[in-house]
Design a protein that fits this description.
171 residues, mainly alpha
Length: 171
Amino acid sequence: QYVEVQSLMLSPFVGVFDARATGWITYIQDLNSFTELLMDCQANFLYYLPLFSAGDVTKLIPEQAQSFKHITNRFQKVAAALQVDSYLVHVPQRPELRAELLQCRELFDGLQGGMSVLLDAKRKSFARLYFMSDRDILDMMSQTASAPHLLGSYVHKCFDGIFNLALTRSK
């Protein structure tokens, strides 16, 4: 739609419709920026959700867990509002939704900073973690605290020659 309106603006016959076409372009840009903001927040939310669903991780980083609870409340508020009025064309008339998502983005940025401090501390305590991505370390922390047998699936990322690790209980 955006390209069609822009091509309309280049037409020599746009004079009568110039104000309307300019309004359409602004409207489409607002709608596009909102959907990008919504998708960005949704991607971050889905990235952190499994991590903070594990109770052990929330004990390690209580400030970030509290921040994620605030984000969850805000994001669910936006999702509920969009579910009630699912026509995306009405979004530009609802600036409070954009404000909520912008606040979520700011909270996600702060959350990322706190997570970086935690990950740096973990990497300093065990240098082999430098070979793993942030996501792998976070996954490992959230899964292996309650199920240590899952640690074996991460060993090959830390040690080149080891592909499997079997853990047994000692008596």
